[in-house]
Please model this.
Amino acid sequence: MTESSAPSSSVAADPLLDALDDAQRVAAEALIGPVCVLAGAGTGKTRAITHRIAYGVASGAYDPKRVMALTFTARAAAELRGRLHTLGAGAVQARTFHAAALAQLGHFWPLVVGGSAPRVLEFKGRLLGQAAERAKVRVDTATLRDVAAEIEWRKVQLLSPAEYEQRLPSRGAPGSLSVEQHLALMQAYEQLKDERRSLDFEDVLLATAGMIESEPSVAMQVREQYRHFVVDEYQDVSPAQQRLLEAWLGDRRDVCVVGDASQTIYSFAGASSEYLLGFERRFPGATIVRLEHNYRSTAPIVEAANRLMRGREGALRLQAHASGAGATFGGRANAPGAGEPEVTAFPDDLAEARAVARRIRDRIDAGTKPQDIAVLIRVNSQSALYEQALEETGVPVRVRGAQRFFDRPEVREAVHTLRAASLAPADEPLFKSVSDVLRSLGWSAQAPDGPGAVRSRWESLNAIARLVDDAPAGTTFRAFTDQLRARAESHHEPTLEAVTVATLHSAKGLEWDEVYLVGLSEGLLPIAYAKGLAAIDEERRLLYVGVTRARRRLELSWARRAGGSRGDREPSRFLDELRSRIPGAGRTPGGEGANRREG
Model:
């Protein structure tokens, strides 16, 4: 194993390397052979891997058309493409596993099987409903969603139907279905899918890997096309994705993986950090680089994160970077006003939501931008209470994971109208061309008063207007609308001037100046259905992700009672572990009526 955290002094200076710290630079210089970058939260992993790719291209080590950068969401892939383009490596492919597999399947299917590739189902729900009718099984929508999740889990775990049936007693059938009904429904789904020449998203991975493994000509072409692979968020890889990666690689070793075992939060969907932690066993002599300088968060927040993960397998020891170097990379280790995270206990959920909303209102009035604040929740059902409380205080809200920005009716209308208008010649400044169209749709430079649907529509149109400010000088009206369409296709959403309410899962990969982690009680975090050590550890990692989203300020809270309930809750066990360093953690509020900040 080669493990290093400092560059060789003999390396020639290069602008792409000068932008990196010592450990990031080691990762960027390790261009050939297996490389594993263990990158903690806020340590600049995206910077490291994009500069590594760009340096490989600039130095001639890589043909950009033979490099594949892989990640797990369309948004993350779009960010990689944007950064690589800025660094002069725009010809490099940056895709999700599914997008890369789908492109290859579409290309090779006519050559190997004949005819066009099968249609890919966007959603399983409709076909599952028809399968239920065929199997004569009565089932509600919620149970259908759970059956769909089981289908996905079986496939990404590479289990045959018979192997899945053997495991089913320990997992249990969804909803009120019997084991026999569940299996009959899954079988009917597969039969209908085959009859209609359709594939689901998991089939795409499996079919592509199978085609490469069974067809030497396909394997030769794929491996000739792509010589170097970079895999981001490698802790989230599933057995099906790992199988596909191995099929792409063949017997080659030019792969760089980047991940953090402490941020493995999708085990329930088949993700496994074992591939990240076992990388060196599969690739003896691999270069191992540890990124532990956190450039995102203040020192107290970093220390809280370290305490939470201390002693856990694969946990990195984060170090808050000093303000001088941090300023170079965006860190705020010694930012003015940085204090210890605080825990507040409340008598009930409503009191908690209203107090958090008032606190956020005060912070906005003091100059914090709404888009720099987030409220993080464990489950979607907590969202409505915080949306209402924030709207009551006049704070604009966006719910992450709800309707996507480019799917909103007013946004679709605006993009369509802008595209049509851009077809005509225009000699006017870009902002005037865009604003004229948006004004025709009801936008104005002045925001309407109060919350509600009118304000929400204005926020959407205003977000499009603000994209003009980000456009490079000389951007034409047509080019601007082309960029809008590309954003829509990649789900690259603009920043809205609103406080974000998001689940801990959907907050992964994001960051805010100020984060309010709410509902930190037993039964919510860890969630009530988390049974066993592995499930509890997953909940711990979720909290770690939430903590490390905060740059400057982190506030944590919990409530003794749910609305209308007489039974008392207990504070999350994770708060109790942090008691010695976080004021108020683990204490119980002294009185029923007071919303009391403890510590």
About this structure: The CA atoms of residues 230 and 341 lie 36 Å apart.
